[in-house]
């Protein structure tokens, strides 16, 4: 009896051990499966996702729209114009900066008025640089790359001169209050042009960091075509970043009068944005660590996507840092860097919000599907979102990452690209108004753009006050502001084409930079470069 009991116990023990082994094997298999599914959304590869490194067939409508969009930069130029292609524009602002023995004659007027606002101008340069770095081959394929380089350098020449010492940056030329009391062409403007600067006593971390981002990104653009200029830009970028970080404070607080036009809602995003561009420009891990482990927890807003604009760089920084996770570097391990993973996860939350049939799709859109966030200059968010979407799509394609996971559903890179196409097609005329919001494109576009130079005949002799007759004229603008991207429709998708309607009808250089970058990504299909160096 005892012997049978002992054998039975041994048998039971063997059976129990076998069961535990089976459970362990099943558990390991399940864990491995879950891990594989988790990694799928980051690393799944497919030969079907391969794209050529060379630009594919040109999409003619986007090529034409890109050609037109580039012209608005020429329309907005201040200074002594060279090879001027705009017959109704001439030299202007030649004395800007002279009161401080500076040459601030170049740069761009930001919108329909005659002020040079440094904050949005720097943003314009950063986005234009980004578009060139990612899609320069596509721009070259449609003969717009040289034009893009010229437009960018016109801005960065100004920014260099606006930064005469490490802790001093001139951030505005002209007085908006005086300017808005006049309606005149820039070539004959008569009002005073005072300067505004930030310094250690009146800091402006947001605008200084954005200018650093502009300089750093532009240094990458010019690295192979003008190395000395590239090095100069990088030096200014590093000085400005140190200034922005050391003397923290919003320029909207230091200089309250700027709140009316370009109020900053915070500077943390600009610090991360600038540090990320400086990492790309230098390869210095100090900047990467600054944007991730050191300041990411305080400023990155991980898990809370926000809209990309001249004021908010969070989404763009998330996408730009995701680029590192897609293509890797020898010094950074995506799998081991939790902060980098958080950036990419938040970028993917943003992308999932854009896709109209995603479980987490944003409700901030019109009935026809246009991203619509605010009534003032609504197209900025739509075009900015579309640019980030096509960029993320191309990151996925180039890295052969097959899927984007959105709360239970899987999407392909083509879904993001199709979203971007839907936004730009809306802008170009596929909308309830059946009109293009890009001036000069198609047969129907705004005729009463809120723009001084466009509205006044080039041969008119007007002073400050008598020019208002052109603002209030019932006739269409005397000069077509080709390439101007106006503010866009109301939420109900209507548009009032009236020169006094600046909410909908005023174009801006930052809108132009965004649509140039977007169109450059859509004009042909190809891979993006895995590195900017």
UniProtKB/TrEMBL annotation:
Enzyme Commission code(s) on record: 3.2.1.4
GO biological-process terms attached to the record: cellulose catabolic process
Transmembrane segments annotated in the record for this chain: 20-43
Occurrences of domain Glycoside hydrolase family (ranges): 62-519
Molecular function GO terms recorded: cellulase activity
Pfam families found in the cross-reference section: Glyco_hydro_9 (PF00759)
Enzyme class, broadest EC rank: hydrolase
Catalysed reaction equations from the record: Endohydrolysis of (1->4)-beta-D-glucosidic linkages in cellulose, lichenin and cereal beta-D-glucans
InterPro entries per the UniProt record, alphabetical: 6-hairpin_glycosidase_sf, 6hp_glycosidase-like_sf, Glyco_hydro_9, Glyco_hydro_9_His_AS
Residue positions of the active site: 450
Source domain of life: Eukaryota
Key words of the record: Carbohydrate metabolism, Cellulose degradation, Glycosidase, Hydrolase, Membrane, Polysaccharide degradation, Transmembrane, Transmembrane helix
Family: Belongs to the glycosyl hydrolase 9 (cellulase E) family.
Protein name as catalogued: Endoglucanase
Highest classification ranks of the organism: Eukaryota, Viridiplantae, Streptophyta, Embryophyta, Tracheophyta
